[in-house]
Specification:
heterotrimer; A alpha/beta (256); B alpha+beta (378); C alpha+beta (360); A: alpha/beta; Rossmann fold; 9-stranded mixed beta sheet; 6 helices; globular; B: alpha+beta; Butyryl-Coa Dehydrogenase, subunit A, domain 1; Butyryl-CoA Dehydrogenase, subunit A, domain 2; 3 domains; 4-stranded mixed beta sheet; 4-stranded antiparallel beta sheet; 10 helices; 10 strands
């Protein structure tokens, strides 16, 4: 089974203070740490699990800056067979469509039965790239995948719907799956594997390797932090005093 | 410092007591987190629970210097027993003696001094540590009672105390001028204990949370006048600092005693360890520093005894004694090496106990502020 | 931050270990410490990731990496749980490296090989300053060594299946399996309580002469550097805690981080931590470049373990009464730091080695 997995290197913003840079179209990144996008680490693990079960090979692709090679090396250390970086610097600015178009241009010439992506990137949160690649390739796809089994050239997948519902589907291969976090337990790369992966070659492709024109459909105008509008008030004093003040405020607002 | 004969005799006497009766219990008290009730009883019999209290109230009728010497000598063998003695005397007994009226003295002071009751002092709150004026425990006068609400934290001997002096505010907007001092007795309705703290050291002493929920205490339990609580506890802490300084000194000296014992017996590559200059250098340094701390502690005690202002000196005594005491206990482990990490020697316990001396009854940072204000003006 | 430069491999290792620590170790570090029990499951995972055999050559199923990689891993693990950092450093330096560098072919096949399968090795020693009665003494008798009157500590002893004893007088290691007739005793220790440090004693043991092999300073240089990396982790943990608490805790109507008295406590920690980092990775680089690293290893050990103690003390001070309780990890940082500082020998012994090297 030939598996392609798309992974992205993203800034870790969950616990960091995020500031917009002077251009107004990007965030200040020099104090942030970067790592593989969370959902993508599950996609990568799923790719390796499929390979371990059904044989074949895993190709990890990342559209990113030179530092994304670190992310690809970890993919190699965990069990990917090939790693490919598409030079982001040749294509910026990027939107979801253009990213998908570039990846499509590369993947279409590769052998694949299964393509895996994460279901959402934690930086831009578009959730577009997987489905657009599938549409461009003319293959079926499923998003928010929480279970994935292969049986007789078909995939049995479970996907997450709103309101706690799950959906079970049978999908013909080749197909693309955008996986949800929690589908598996991503492994850690062992030191020996990292050491070996550090010496492996990572193939890079740039603007010259893509045929045809790749264009964005949307333009990022401005990034901003939502203004704080409402005032919060912290009441202090003994429990009785606090309750009293609270009742008074509620009364003032006409809620009682 | 040359002590006069009277003090030397007292020192010998209390040292004998500490070594014979307290020292053998120290390891076990720390291990089992056991409060030494029997030692409290013994100290009461020996009139050690009211050393500076006049004989008419059941005290020993001695002075602050004797008291400091006693805390030092007890702390030298057991920090937990030392902190009990210091807290009971300086924080439980002293404010009642200092601010109580005759009725209050006969009601609370005498049983405390006789050791029939255990005393404690509730000042610190979860959000009022160094900033004691931020007291949020409230007192509301209702007829003949004050209704108390609030929580006190890190209270030494809290959950075993029978008589607790504490502070509460009648008007938080007035800051320290709204604070009064009161006494609550164990068993009063609405007064309970939270959990006891699990601490790094002083594990044989109890540190608790006190909880007041609509606790009604009679009007007569007001200590001093309304709004003068801040002064009561400032006076209490000025004196308390001398005892914590003495305890810090004692624990540091305990570490030095252990070093001396160890070094005199140990050998290194066939040579007596005491001939090693690396060791000599460390021992000389901490011995000198501890001796200086002793001078500061005794000086502060003597100033108090003769009625000269001693705020700066008591802050210096506590700040310096805890600093050099911490260093002495830390160096003790560096001399003992791996053996010192075990409970076969008391040095690791001394180090754990000593760290509180830089925190309790005003952190070192607060002491420095007090000293600087005295020197530079407010 | 330009002086410490990690290569690609080392950066990847640092990120992967950080991730492991954050996901797997942080949620249980507190529990491990409270239980004061050797964390066997975590150690099993460390073995699988190659963290217990970082410098063991690939021929013996190790990761074949260098001292810098070891320090990176030890620093990150110790930031969360110093006991685990210590177990890992002992296994890597005083067992794995000692066997790879000095062991006989038989010892390597038998013992070194087993480390990557999850066997843990221990390191036994008698403190150097001592009652001479306690020191390990060996005599030849026929083809055997007879050891008498040993009494000391075994690091990793609670779970070790074999133990390397150091005999400093003769600069020899003696390797015995656990069953050799040792009396092991659980021992209360100030800190590093989950690291499985035990006491041992025996009157007389006979082991084959082949179980002995000589060593030189190199193994202790490495151990001191590894111990320092553990200290660096503790110091950083204490610093991070103090910074976080100082920003949150309010007194006198302001966060306490705004008071210069508190700033002084924390800036002292920060300065010492940054200096310590430079020392740890400088000495690791010396070691990796095969330069004589005794001097720098001793300097690093003295300074960094002292820094860890300072950071533990100051972090407690910033926390005030709260720091003195077991509700917060800062009291553990102090206990672990002080234990680390004196465990492998008194700091003044390291200072005297520095003096010897630069003066005599």
């Amino acid at each position: 089974m030939e598996i392609v997995v798309c992974i992205k290197r993203v800034p870790q913003t969950a616990e960091a203070e995020v500031k917009v840079d002077p251009s107004g179209r990007d965030i200040v990144k020099d104090r942030l740490t970067f790592d593989i996008n969370e959902a993508d680490s599950y996609a990568l693990e799923q790719a390796i699990l499929l390979k371990e079960k059904y044989g074949g090979s895993v190709t990890a692709i990342s559209l990113g800056p030179a530092e994304a090679e670190d992310t690809l090396r970890i993919a190699l250390a965990k069990g990917a067979d090939n790693a490919l970086r598409i030079k982001e610097e040749d294509f910026t600015p990027l939107d979801g469509y253009k990213t998908a178009l570039i990846l499509y241009n590369i993947i279409k010439d590769l052998k694949y039965n299964v393509i895996l992506t994460g279901c959402i990137a934690t930086d831009d949160g578009y959730s577009q790239v997987g489905p657009i690649i599938a549409e461009l390739l003319g293959i079926p796809h499923a998003t928010l995948v929480t279970e994935l089994e292969i049986k007789d050239e078909k995939a049995e997948v479970v996907r997450e719907l709103e309101g706690g519902l799950l959906e079970r589907l049978e999908i013909n291969l080749p197909a693309l799956f955008a996986v949800q976090t929690g589908i598996n337990e991503p492994r850690y790369a062992s030191l020996l594997a990292i050491r070996r992966a550090a010496k492996k070659e990572i193939k890079t492709l740039g603007g010259a390797d893509i045929q045809g024109e790749v264009k964005s459909l949307s333009v990022l105008e401005k990034l901003y932090v939502p203004p704080v509008e409402r005032r919060a008030e912290i009441l202090s004093g003994s429990m009785d005093e606090i309750s009293e003040k609270l009742v008074q405020i509620i009364k003032e607002k006409g809620l009682l | 410092m040359i002590l006069s004969k009277r003090y030397q005799e007292f020192q010998d006497w209390v040292r004998q007591f500490a070594r014979k009766e307290v020292a053998p219990r120290a390891k076990e008290l720390d291990k089992k987190e056991e409060f030494p009730r029997d030692l409290v009883k013994r100290m009461a019999e020996l009139k050690m629970l009211g050393i500076f209290i006049p004989e008419e109230y059941g005290g020993a009728g001695l002075d602050t210097l004797c008291y400091a010497i006693a805390v030092e000598e007890v702390g030298r063998v057991c920090g937990s027993t030392g902190i009990f003695l210091a807290a009971h005397s300086s924080l439980g007994v002293f404010p009642i003696y200092h601010a109580g009226d005759e009725k209050q003295k006969s009601r609370w002071l005498i049983p405390l001094v006789k050791g029939e009751k255990i005393g404690s002092f509730g000042l610190t709150e979860p959000n009022a540590g160094s900033d004691a004026a931020a007291t949020r425990t409230t007192a509301r006068l209702e007829g003949d009672f004050y209704v108390i609400n609030g929580i006190k934290r890190f209270i030494t001997s809290g959950s075993i105390a029978d008589i607790i002096v504490f502070t509460a505010t009648q008007d938080p907007s007035k800051g320290h001028r709204g604070i009064s001092a009161f006494v609550v007795e164990k068993g009063t309705r609405g007064f309970s204990y939270g959990r006891n703290e699990d601490k790094l050291g002083l594990r044989g002493s109890i540190t608790s949370e006190l909880i007041f929920e609509d606790c009604r205490i009679p009007k007569e339990n007001l200590l001093g006048k309304e709004g003068e609580g801040f002064k009561v506890f400032m006076d209490t802490l000025d004196g308390g600092r001398i005892s914590i300084g003495a305890l810090a000194l004692g624990i540091g000296e305990g570490a030095l005693d252990a070093i001396i014992n160890f070094v005199q017996q140990a050998q290194e590559s066939g040579q007596p360890l005491k001939k090693n200059q690396w060791i000599q250098s460390m021992v000389a340094e901490i011995a000198t520093e501890l001796e200086s701390a002793r001078l500061l502690v005794y000086q502060a005690a003597q100033l108090k005894d003769v009625g000269i202002p001693f705020i700066k000196e008591s802050a210096m005594a506590k700040y310096y004694a805890s600093k050099v005491g911490m260093k002495a206990t830390s160096i003790a482990l560096e001399i003992f090496g791996a053996d010192g990490l075990t409970d076969e020697y008391p040095v690791e316990r001394f180090m754990r106990d000593e760290k509180l001396m830089e925190i309790g009854e005003g952190t070192s940072e607060i002491q420095k502020i007090v000293i600087a204000r005295q020197i530079l003006g407010k | 931050m330009g002086l410490i430069i990690f290569n690609d491999e080392q950066t990847l290792i640092q990120n992967e270990v950080k991730k492991f620590v954050k996901d797997k170790l942080s949620p249980i570090a507190d529990e491990i410490d409270k239980k004061e029990k050797f964390p066997e499951e975590i150690i099993t995972t460390l073995t699988e990731l190659g963290l217990m055999t970082i410098m063991v050559p690939e021929d013996y199923k190790g990761a074949g990496l260098d001292c810098t990689s070891l320090c990176i891993a030890a620093e990150e693990l110790s930031k969360e749980c110093a006991s685990i950092g210590l177990v890992m450093v002992v296994n890597n330096c005083l067992v794995g490296y000692a066997l790879s560098r000095y062991g006989t072919q038989f010892q390597k096949t038998q013992y070194l090989n087993s480390l990557s399968d999850g066997v843990i090795g221990g390191y036994g020693f008698c403190p150097e300053i001592n009652n001479p009665e306690r020191l390990l003494k060996s005599e030849k008798k026929g083809g055997n060594f007879v050891l008498s009157r040993g009494n000391g500590f075994i690091l990793n002893g609670a779970v070790a299946e074999f133990i390397l004893f150091s005999n400093f007088q003769e600069k020899k290691f003696l390797l015995f399996p656990k069953q050799a007739g040792l009396k092991l005793k659980n021992q209360y220790i100030l800190g590093m309580r989950s690291a499985g440090i035990v006491r041992f004693e025996f009157n007389q043991i006979e082991v084959p002469e082949t179980s002995s092999f000589s060593f030189d300073n190199k193994v202790f240089d490495l151990a001191y550097i590894g111990f320092s990396a553990v200290g660096l982790g503790i110091a950083r943990a204490a610093l991070d805690s103090a910074i976080k608490y100082a920003k949150e805790r309010k007194q006198f109507g302001r966060p306490i981080c705004e008071f210069p008295m508190v700033q002084e406590l924390i800036t002292k920690m920060k300065i010492a931590v940054e200096t310590s980092r430079l020392l740890v990775y400088e000495s690791a680089k010396c070691f990796d470049n095969n330069e004589d690293s005794s001097l720098i290893a001793n300097i690093t050990r003295v300074y960094v373990t002292e820094t860890a103690v300072l950071c533990g003390l100051n972090a407690i001070q910033v926390y005030g009464g709260y720091g003195y309780t077991k509700d917060y990890p800062v009291e553990r940082y102090l206990r672990d730091a002080k234990t680390l500082q004196v465990l492998l020998g008194q700091p003044y012994l390291a200072k005297s080695l520095i003096a010897k090297e630069i003066l005599l």
